Amino acid sequence: MTDDSLILSVADAADLPDADHVFAGLKAYNEAASGRPYDRRDLVVVARDAAGELRGGLVGYTNWDWLYVDLLWVADGGRGGGLGARLLDAAEAEARARGCRWSRLYTYDFQAPGFYPKCGYEEWSRMEGYPEGHTQIWFRKTLA
133: how many CB neighbours lie within 10 A of its CB? Predict the structure, then answer.
């Protein structure tokens, strides 16, 4: 089969069986290439008020000794009160329980770049102009 005989499709949302197949193929390749099991596990921490309203949350995953924080959000009115640090601490504690030794995440210059150093993270990279007129900032932390 040549590349010319393949039909590409583009969509706004993943077809779950297709996404699962892509993940399984990448997992098999990564395990064979690295010699290590691909042990990715989702990790979600949420905070709700007494009425059950979501007030903040963290979404990420663990894999190969790392915690990957993809999303960290605190609702308006709750920022600056320590909830973000509590969410991050809970995720890091679970990551340690899973055997993780490091954490990584990114934020933007208009979000919370001053927050992460207060939580023990060090900046290790910047991407200027993403988005236009702003900077994406990458942080990492040793969890030992």
Answer: 9
Coil, strand or helix at 52? coil
CB 140 within 8 A of CB 124: yes
Residue 40 dihedral angles phi and psi, to the nearest 5°:
-60, 130
Which of these, 125, 132, 140, lies nearest to 110 by C-alpha position?
132
* Closest C-alpha among 45, 70, 41, 48 to residue 57: 45
Q: What is the pLDDT of residues 53-93, one digit of tens each?
A: 999 999 999 999 999 999 999 999 989 999 999 999 999 99
The mean of the pLDDT values for the chain is 95
Distance CA 59, CA 43 (A): 6
The closest of 89, 90, 91, 54 to 70, measured between CA atoms, is 91
Question: Could you tell me if 143 and 103 are in contact, meaning their C-beta atoms sit under 8 angstroms apart?
Answer: yes
Quote the pLDDT of residue 144. Answer: 84
> What torsion, rounded to 10 degrees, do the Cα atoms 85, 88, 93, 95 define?
-170
Place of tokens 């009425």: 51
Q: Which two tokens stand for residue 76?
A: 């308006």
Quickly list H helices, the chain.
Answer: 16-34, 83-97, 115-118
